[in-house]
Amino acid sequence: xxxxxxxxxxxxxxxxxxxxxxxxxxxxxxxxxxxxxxxxxxxxxxxxxxxxxxxxxxxxxxxxxxxxxxxxxxxxxxxxxxxxxxxxxxxxxxxxxxxxxxxxxxxxxxxxxxxxxxxxxxxxxxxxxxxxxxxxxxxxxxxxxxxxxxxxxxxxxxxxxxxxxxxxxxxxxxxxxxxxxxxxxxxxxxxxxxxxxxxxxxxxxxxxxxxxxxxxxxxxxxxxxxxxxxxxxxxxxxxxxxxxxxxxxxxxxxxxxxxxxxxxxxxxxxxxxxxxxxxxxxxxxxxxxxxxxxxxxxxxxxxxxxxxxxxxxxxxxxxxxxxxxxxxxxxxxxxxxxxxxxxxxxxxxxxxxxxxxxxxxxxxxxxxxxxxxxxxxxxxxxxxxxxxxxxxxxxxxxxxxxxxxxxxxxxxxxxxxxxxxxxxxxxxxxxxxxxxxxxxxxxxxxxxxxxxxxxxxxxxxxxxxxxxxxxxxxxxxxxxxxxxxxxxxxxxxxxxxxxxxxxxxxxxxxxxxxxxxxxxxxxxxxxxxxxxxxxxxxxxxxxxxxxxxxxxxxxxxxxxxxxxxxxxxxxxxxxxxxxxxxxxxxxxxxxxxxxxxxxxxxxxxxxxxxxxxxxxxxxxxxxxxxxxxxxxxxxxxxxxxxxxxxxxxxxxxxxxxxxxxxxxxxxxxxxxxxxxxxxxxxxxxxxxxxxxxxxxxxxxxxxxxxxxxxxxxxxxxxx
Length: 719
Prior knowledge:
Layout: H1 4-13, H2 33-48, H3 57-71, H4 80-86, H5 93-99, H6 103-128, E1 140-142, H7 154-173, H8 179-197, H9 202-214, E2 222-224, H10 226-230, H11 232-237, E3 239-240, E4 245-250, E5 253-259, H12 264-268, E6 276-281, E7 288-289, H13 295-302, E8 309-315, E9 326-331, E10 343-351, E11 354-362, H14 370-374, H15 383-397, E12 401-405, H16 414-422, E13 428-429, E14 432-435, E15 440-441, E16 445-446, E17 456-460, H17 467-477, E18 482-485, E19 493-499, E20 504-513, E21 529-530, H18 569-580, H19 584-600, E22 604-606, H20 609-633, H21 642-648, H22 659-679, H23 681-684, H24 686-718
Parallel strand pairs: 11-12, 12-17, 17-18, 18-21
Antiparallel strand pairs: 1-22, 2-20, 3-4, 4-5, 5-6, 6-7, 6-8, 8-9, 10-11, 13-16, 14-15, 14-20, 19-20
């Protein structure tokens, strides 16, 4: 979903990993295998990709810039003189591509490797010397490559790396590492990176170079070498099957992008999205530092047999390590289809003395067991079937309305998105699909009368993508539901994987369009009532991706609305704003988000350890003050100090001897967490609570409108 493939490729082959004795790499039989394959890929891109673009000088310039950024995204290695030298190909890569010539890609890669090798050796030499880092000096470093320019001299590069080493030392020291141990860890880290690079070959460089071209078409188009194809499922889903989490990379870190509902990590409740994994172990005594590692190597280290245990050292919430790391122990398990299935709960909402019972259906993915379906298994699993069962149960509970929670739902089966829509609207088209030849298909349709006609709200966020957007967009267009939350991801494209002479090519072949004619690509679904986003739109979403296909529109398709909730939106919005302005839990959440955004806005990192320590303390203090203010508003006892607050909110630690005991403890902790969540949704999930209030307001407005219509009708009859 994110530009994970490109990031992954950098991790696989990037500049942080180089062998001491590596020889210059060259194309594999350049005049035959890779030449022919390069031409084959170029032909597929030109003839089958949705985006038609000329292979010309303009594309050549973009190609060069993209490849350089892949090789050195932080501007850590190349000097301006290297960039000037590479510019000899700025208008030639298009012509060379037509001939199947990949030599420039290897020349640039080899240059980067030589520079990085020398720099890594210099780093190790400095760490092994008696050089003392002055941690009291008032200086800063800018890590973000977008904020930096290419360095000019080798001396400037050496000084930059001195600062990076200093920053790394501070991070480790603030995580309670002894100075000697910190040096040893960094030396080990650099040596590991060198060893890893020794495994890279010509095939790896070819894949990286070709993907710089593929990335110019859109973020979801990628070439997979034969070796990468063998691990295709991991690369595509970034799934840690052992603990139930999805990973991406950020700079040199492995970062958790999503916790899979129902998996071991989710049930334990400690790991969170944005946490960074810095070391992995099969016991507490064999932790391996994984900073700078390629993603699939980290995956292999974390995966393992069911019921075995893995130890993870993580930095919480995207931290820059100013807070202490924590060790999380997780008992591995297989994340089954059932674990990702829909879940439900009942919440009670009181509005102006009126008690309402609302059903909440959480839909983590659009899934279907196609194999069981083909075998005519009457009990095959699917999103639609599971939601239908829950609707029938809620009918017995006589719920007043339903919330469909699609937060973090990254999509899945288009068929299921269509069938699920069918449960809530009357027969009609659900989505339009336009291919690269501008042909539009409207075959995805609702065909049955709606199974549920009552009031409903759909809750989305920035990670609601693809099939989620089709479903939410259809219900919005049909006037069937109020859409609440933040702007969705904006992935409105369809990919196809095709085999090549060697490896595979995943390329975008179609775009999704709503029945209104609006694309779900890039823009996503805009909510009727907006809630704060937990994710920065500038960092997460299709619109953030380089070369993403644009939003556009086509002709609408005739359809009959299944409701008309739009007239209620102004009143619902006004009540929402008035209510959330004084709701302690909601205000607390908004303030926390604002604080986080302000801290994330810092472009430069201090290299003064006391300033870093004070910054960490200041962060804790501000969170402490926010929490006490929330408690004051709710007439709860305030925490005496930061220490008392941190102690009360410390993540549950599993401190048992056996794996069985750990599993039991994790399950008990999960059950307790769920009970607490159900008991106080306002505190644990203020967005869901507020969505419930919005639905309650909607129900009352609809009832009032129906009553008014009934009075008018009776009056007409009397007259």
